[in-house]
Specification:
It comes from Arthrobacter bussei. The chain contains no helices and 6 strands. By secondary structure, it is an all-beta fold. The chain has one domain: OB fold (Dihydrolipoamide Acetyltransferase, E2P) (Beta Barrel). A 5-stranded mixed beta barrel has the order 1-2-3-5-4. Strand 1 and strand 2 form a beta hairpin. The radius of gyration is 14 Å and the shape is globular. The N and C termini lie far apart (54 Å).
Length: 101
């Protein structure tokens, strides 16, 4: 009998539409030899808890304006990939840059 996955301690739903905003903690750019994708890890507050959400833009090597320290509002379908809350190709709005503070 296969072991069932451990229950998530995250306050985020397992999947569904999400609207959130948070600060980009780090970005990852895919190497030239890999399929193009641009990843950003956002730290958000959800139901009073701090959560990390991976945002992935498929088919893009860069997303202008998205860099570590930027505050981003985003909306998209949340899913869990290897246990990590992930949103692919979200609608987004940049509403704070590090140099503005």
């Amino acid at each position: 009998m296969a072991a069932s996955p451990a229950p998530s301690t995250s306050a985020l739903p397992t999947r569904g539409r999400i609207k959130a905003h948070g600060v980009i903690e780090r970005i990852t750019i895919a190497p030239v030899t890999a399929s193009p994708s641009f990843r950003a890890l956002a730290r958000i507050e959800w139901d009073g808890a701090h959560e990390s959400v991976l945002i992935v833009w498929m088919g893009r090597r860069r997303v202008p304006g998205v860099e570590a320290g930027v505050t981003l509002r985003f909306e998209g379908m949340l899913s869990r990939v290897a246990g990590t809350p992930t949103v692919y190709n979200p609608r987004y709005e940049i509403f704070g840059r590090p140099e503005e503070y």
